Amino acid sequence: MSAGFLEIRNLVKRYGGAVAVDGASLSIAKGDFLTLLGPSGSGKTTILMAIAGFVKPTEGEIVLSGRNLVPLEPEERDLGIVFQGYALFPHMTVAQNVAFPLELRKWKPDAIAKRVEETLAMVDLTRFADRRPAQLSGGQQQRVALARCLSYQPDLLLLDEPLSALDRQLRARLQDEIKSLHQKVGVTVVNVTHDQDEALSMSTHIAVINRGRIVQYGTPDDIYENPATRFVARFIGRSNVATVERIETKSDGASALIAGQWLPVEPNPAVAGKAALSLRPEMIEIGPLGTDRTDARKVVMDARIENCVYHGGTTALDIRTAIGPLRAEMPTSRLGVRPTAGATVQASWPVRAGRIVSEDDTALDQQ
Amino acid sequence: MTLPKSVPGNILRGLAWAGVLFLIAPLLVVIPVSFTPERYLSFPSEALSLRHYETLLFDRRWSGGILTSLLIASITTVLSVVIGTLCAVGMWRIGGRRMQLLRLMILAPLIVPSIVHALAFYKSWIDLGWLDTVWGVIVAHTTICVPLVMITVSAALSGFDHRLEYAARSLGARPLTVLRRIILPNILPGVVSGGIFAFITSWDEIIVILFITARKVRTLPQTIWSSIMERVDPAVAAISTVMVAATLAAVIIKLTLAKRAAPQP
Fold it and tell me: Is the pLDDT at A367 greater than 50, yes or no?
């Protein structure tokens, strides 16, 4: 791989005996929007804070456009960070907050005034220039925090779960705003979140992190469609994952032994060692019993409905099948049966929808 | 105010006022006494006189005591505000269990009885040769006042988000700039009230003074003390009245300033 704009090489952070980050390596290009996605305690924030300079790595390098950041103090790194809770200075007005980094950079007063005005116009906050942060809504504060970071045009913008405190609707709107701002300004972004929807909708690249390791790195659609491990499949898209006991390949294709049942699958040469089958809930089709079972491109089996939850446009069903409990999600309009708990129905999915993944994250290292 | 008009409510109110009276009455008594024309403590019977106020101004013992106390209290305030604030900010930044222990140790002077304290100062000041010097008193008072400032500043810091410091540094501010432009403006109320506590404490501290000064350094509390011990001088009532008036003036100024600051958007 050629040298990227931001390179993280074998980053390790230990706190006493506990390992927060366990050899993470990443390389992203200028203009990328990278999301570090993982559950809480996975080490994603530690990686972000190491880039920012507030966590000193135990081992490893962080290089930003050829400049090694590790020995630099946070204030020498020239990055922008939007913190969880925004960290706006409560004793300053919006305009003073945005002017602060420019004053530190010894800009002339008229240049500062001009840039503050431009930046506030960009985030549509011109009217609020003289207000205090406490007088703004959560969404407005968020935009002030962004403006404060963008005013001095840093090479890299770091986002530390800036949206997690907001309600769903506002979050969706701000996701769009950040995304369009990213396209408009062209700044490279590293975002941290535990929200898979946010990661999928905003990013150009996602690094899925678990227990201090980068489990999978790729574009959102790649990660969603081709999860590498059980963890990725579960964490992103809440996939059904069943342990595969054995895979056999014959002339008519590969089959996997799951809970005593042989199912046709598509082989995945990338998986060595223990394997599992991942099946997206929305790929499972629920219909009345007795449909044609001879279609070789489909897996068909009986299922008993245990529970169903109506979400309006979609309906979620917990079903029990020969290979264990599964979760299915279907557009309500396409449900072939009236879903009632206890009813026996037919579940089916295309063979290619079942994806062979690695059972555990550590098996990836042997690849 | 919607207190119920029931009897218990009235009794409660009566008790409250009785409490207020109990606290304030002794203060009010000194005011008429200070205007007595006599040379001993008494209520003025016929004429009022300002002679005891004159004494405060022109008697070297009184005016010297006031000036010495002002000097000591001012320098003590500045020193303990600077040391106490830096100490509190530093401990806030480091955090953790060890800092809790250290905090307890630093707050110890508040827990130890003053008399024990005074004895300790006396013993050490003999060895250091600081007895009966203004600097000796200032060092002793600063030791007593630093914990007071630390308490109020720590309280102000407990509501201060660490991320503000991180944010400022990521925006390019060096640690000293962060202290000056971000931390201090936000904890200023705590610093100011710590300073006020420090000033008042030093201003009327008597026990340590009695131990570590003799002839050369005479503070106001010491003058009051000896004038009561020696001859019950009504000038004591006069200085008390001046101090009550000064406190009242300070409170009124504070309230007016607060009122003026409040309607700001």
Answer: no
* Mean pLDDT score across all residues of chain B: 88
Domain count, chain A: 2
pTM metric for this prediction? 0.79
pLDDT at A110 exceeding the cut of 60: yes
Inside any domain, residue A224: yes
Rounded Cα distance between B73 and A251, Å, is: 97
Domains of chain B: 63-154+194-240 (1.10.3720.10)
| Complex confidence, ipTM | 0.81
Structure tokens that stand for A143 in this block = 């935009």
Of A87, A100, A104, the CB nearest to B163: A87
Kindly state whether residue A1 falls inside one of the protein's structural domains. no
Residue A19 structure tokens: 């390992």
Reported as a single tens digit per residue, the pLDDT across A209-229 is 999 999 999 999 999 988 999
Q: Is residue A146 part of a domain?
A: yes
Within 137-166 of B, beta carbons closer than 8 Å to A belong to: 161, 163-164, 166
Establish if A167 touches chain B: CB-CB under 8 angstroms.
no
Report yes or no: B118 and B211 within 8 Å, Cβ to Cβ. Answer: yes
Do residue A78 and residue A141 come from a single domain? yes
CA distance linking residue A149 with residue A260, whole number of Å: 57
Q: Does A56 touch chain B (CB under 8 A)?
A: no
